[in-house]
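About this split. The held-out portion is used to measure sequence recovery: a designer receives only the C-alpha cells and must propose an amino acid at every position. Recovery is the fraction of positions where the proposal matches the reference. Here is one held-out target exactly as it appears in the evaluation file.
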C-alpha cells in the first residue's frame, strides 16, 4: 500500500507538507508537534487512515483518538477565546472603574457610564436610560438617556465614532463636553414617561430594585408581567432592567436595549452589565453626595456672609451707641458749667450793691468757661486721634514737657507734682501728640477728681521690650468697680460730668497698640500706667475707627 502522508512515504519530505505555513518552521524538526497540530487534520493522513483495512484495530483506535482530540482542541479554543474576552473585559472595567472612582462630578460620572454602555468599544448596547431615585418625591425619575432616536441617526453616530478613532475614555470626555445637554433634551419626552412611583410594587423597575437582580424582558409586547405602556414607550421586544445598588441603598435603574440592531441580549451581556453596575452605582452615589455637600457648603458660605454682614451692622450700631454715649457725656459736662454761667450772669444783671460780690460771680464764670474749653479740647483731641502721626520719640522728653505744662495747674489745685526719669530710655514708636494728650488727661483726672490726693509723681521706665510712663498718687485707693469703669471706653460711672479724658485715652492707646492699666500702688494710692512698645511692630497698623 502506498501512503500519501510524509510519515509513511519515503519519497515525500516534511518540507513538502502544504499544511505548514510561514512562521511554523519549528514543526519540521518536531515530529510530535507536527503530528498533533497538523497531521491529524491533514487530508492525506485521513485518506491513508481510510486505506487501512476495516478489520484492523489500529484504524478504529486512531480514528477515535483523532476525533476526541479535535473535539478537545475545539473546546480548548473556545475556553481560550472566552478567557481572552474576559481578560479584555476585566481590563476595560478596570480602566472604567478608575475613571469612575476619581470623578466627583455627577454629570461626568454619568457621561462615562452611559458612553461605556452604548459604545461599540464598551458593551455595545444601542440605547441606555438612567432612572434615579428621588427620595423626596418617592419615585424613580428619568434622568438621562443616550443613543439614537432612529436608524438614520444611528448610522450617522456610528460613522462619526469610527472616523474619530477615540478610545472609550476619550469618547466619554467628548460626550461630557459637547453632547450631554443635547442628549438630555433629546430623550426628555421618553424620560418623563418612564418615571414611576416607588409605591407601585408590581412595576418591573421596583421589582428589580426590591429583588436586587437584573431582569431580562423577552417578548415585551406580549409579556403578561409587563405594563403594555412601558413596551410601547420603548418600542422594543427585548430590554434589560439593571438595578443600581450601593451599600444597601437604591440608587436607580439602568435600562438598556438594542433598538436599532435588534441584536439579542445574551446571558453573558447580562453578567458583564451586572459587574459594571456596582462601580457605577457607587460612583453615582458618591457624586450625588458630593453635589449635596457642595450645596450645603454654598448655603453655609452664604449664611456666613449674612452673619458677617449682621456682625458688621452690630459693630456699626455699637459705634453709633458709643458716639451717643460720648454725646451724652459731653452734654452733661457742658450743662453744669452753662447752668452756673447762666445763673451768675443773671445775678450780674440785677442791681448788686457789692462790687466784691460781682467779682466772685465773674471768677465763677471764668472757671466754668475754662471747664467748657477743656471738654471741647477733649472732643477735638478725639477727632485728631483718628489721624495719628507715628515716629520715634524720646519718652523722657515727652514726660518732662507735659509735667512742665501741667505743674502750675496741678499746684493751683493744691497738689504737688514731681518727676522721676529713667536714665537709659530708648526711642519709642508713638504719636507724640496723642500720648501727650493721654498723659495730660491722666494727670488732670488725678488732680481734680481723685479724693485725698496731695502729691503726684510722674515716672518713666522700661520692662523688657516695653517702656512706660506712670502717674502715681497718694490718694484713697480705687474700688474695683471704679477701676473697671475708668478703663472701659465711655463707661457710665457715678458722675458723667467727670469728663471723657480717661475713656478716650483708653481708646487711643488700644488703637495705638499700647496698654493703659490702673493698679494699686504698694506705697498707697494708685498707679496709672501708659505702656508702650519699644519698636515698631505689626500691631502698629492703623485702621479707620
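Reference sequence for scoring:
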Amino acid at each position: 500500500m502506498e501512503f500519501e502522508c510524509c510519515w509513511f512515504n519515503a519519497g515525500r519530505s516534511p518540507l513538502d507538507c502544504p499544511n505548514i505555513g510561514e512562521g511554523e518552521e519549528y514543526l519540521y524538526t518536531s515530529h510530535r508537534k507536527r503530528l498533533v497540530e497538523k497531521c491529524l487534520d491533514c487530508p492525506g493522513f485521513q485518506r491513508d487512515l481510510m486505506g487501512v483495512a476495516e478489520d484492523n484495530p489500529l484504524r478504529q483506535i486512531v480514528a477515535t483518538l483523532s476525533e476526541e482530540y479535535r473535539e478537545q482542541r475545539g473546546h480548548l479554543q473556545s475556553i481560550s477565546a472566552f478567557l481572552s474576552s474576559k481578560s479584555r473585559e476585566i481590563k476595560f472595567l478596570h480602566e472604567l472603574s478608575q475613571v469612575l472612582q476619581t470623578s466627583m462630578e455627577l454629570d461626568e460620572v454619568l457621561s462615562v457610564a452611559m458612553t461605556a454602555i452604548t459604545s461599540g468599544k464598551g458593551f455595545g448596547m444601542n440605547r441606555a436610560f438612567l432612572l434615579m431615585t428621588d427620595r423626596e418625591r418617592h419615585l424613580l425619575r428619568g434622568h438621562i438617556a443616550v443613543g439614537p432616536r432612529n436608524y438614520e441617526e444611528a448610522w450617522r453616530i456610528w460613522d462619526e465614532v469610527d472616523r474619530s478613532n477615540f478610545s472609550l475614555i476619550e469618547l466619554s470626555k467628548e460626550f461630557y463636553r459637547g453632547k450631554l445637554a443635547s442628549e438630555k433634551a433629546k430623550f426628555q419626552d421618553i424620560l418623563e414617561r418612564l418615571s414611576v412611583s416607588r409605591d407601585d410594587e408590581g412595576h418591573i423597575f421596583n421589582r428589580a430594585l426590591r429583588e436586587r437582580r437584573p431582569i431580562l424582558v423577552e417578548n415585551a409586547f406580549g409579556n403578561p408581567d409587563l405594563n403594555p405602556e412601558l413596551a410601547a414607550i420603548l418600542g422594543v421586544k427585548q430590554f434589560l432592567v439593571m438595578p443600581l445598588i450601593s451599600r444597601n441603598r437604591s440608587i436607580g435603574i439602568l435600562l438598556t436595549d438594542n433598538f436599532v440592531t435588534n441584536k439579542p441580549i445574551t446571558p453573558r451581556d447580562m453578567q458583564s452589565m451586572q459587574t459594571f453596575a456596582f462601580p457605577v452605582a457607587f460612583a453615582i452615589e458618591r457624586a450625588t453626595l458630593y453635589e449635596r455637600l457642595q450645596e450645603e457648603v454654598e448655603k453655609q458660605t452664604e449664611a456666613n456672609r449674612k452673619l458677617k454682614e449682621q456682625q458688621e451692622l452690630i459693630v456699626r450700631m455699637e459705634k453709633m451707641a458709643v458716639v451717643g454715649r460720648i454725646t451724652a457725656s459731653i452734654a452733661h459736662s457742658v450743662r453744669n458749667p452753662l447752668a452756673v454761667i447762666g445763673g451768675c450772669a443773671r445775678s450780674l444783671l440785677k442791681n448788686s450793691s457789692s462790687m466784691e460780690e460781682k467779682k466772685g460771680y465773674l471768677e465763677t464764670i471764668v472757671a466754668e468757661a475754662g471747664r467748657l474749653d477743656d471738654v471741647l479740647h477733649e472732643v477735638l483731641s478725639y477727632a485728631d486721634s483718628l489721624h495719628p502721626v507715628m515716629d520715634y520719640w524720646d519718652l523722657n522728653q515727652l514726660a518732662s514737657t507735659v509735667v512742665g505744662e501741667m505743674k502750675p495747674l496741678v499746684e493751683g489745685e493744691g497738689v504737688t507734682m514731681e518727676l522721676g526719669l529713667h536714665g537709659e530710655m530708648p526711642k519709642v514708636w508713638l504719636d507724640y501728640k496723642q500720648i501727650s494728650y493721654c498723659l495730660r488727661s491722666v494727670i488732670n483726672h488725678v488732680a481734680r477728681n481723685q479724693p485725698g490726693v496731695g502729691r503726684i509723681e510722674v515716672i518713666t521706665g522700661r520692662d523688657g521690650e516695653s517702656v512706660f510712663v506712670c502717674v502715681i498718687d497718694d490718694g484713697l485707693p480705687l474700688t474695683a468697680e471704679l477701676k473697671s469703669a475708668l478703663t472701659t471706653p465711655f463707661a457710665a460711672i457715678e458722675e458723667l460730668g467727670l469728663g471723657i479724658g480717661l475713656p478716650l485715652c483708653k481708646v487711643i492707646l488700644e488703637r495705638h497698640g499700647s496698654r493703659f492699666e490702673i493698679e494699686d500702688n504698694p506705697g498707697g494710692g494708685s498707679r496709672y500706667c501708659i505702656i508702650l512698645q519699644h519698636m515698631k511692630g505689626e500691631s502698629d497698623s492703623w485702621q479707620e475707627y
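Annotator remark: Residues 267-349 form the longest helix (83 residues).
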